[in-house]
Design brief:
- The protein is an all-alpha fold.
- It has a domain of about 35 residues.
- It is about 55% helix and about 0% strand.
- This is YozD family protein.
Length: about 55
């Protein structure tokens, strides 16, 4: 299996959730969206889908 480099932006995740939730009739707060984005990011790390790189 080859390795590819993927950049995950939690702000982009939050925006995606916002649009998807609004389409379904929900209006989340900014704080709720940030939490969902963080949870999604942590899930991807836990499932070894991504590795977190810490910037120096």
């Amino acid at each position: 299996m080859r390795e590819i480099e993927v950049f995950i932006d939690t702000e982009e995740i939050a925006e995606f959730f916002f649009h998807e939730l609004v389409k379904r009739g929900y209006v989340p707060s900014e704080e709720e969206l940030e939490e969902l984005a963080d949870i999604t990011f942590e899930y991807l790390i836990e499932k070894s889908i991504i590795d977190e790189e810490v910037e120096e």
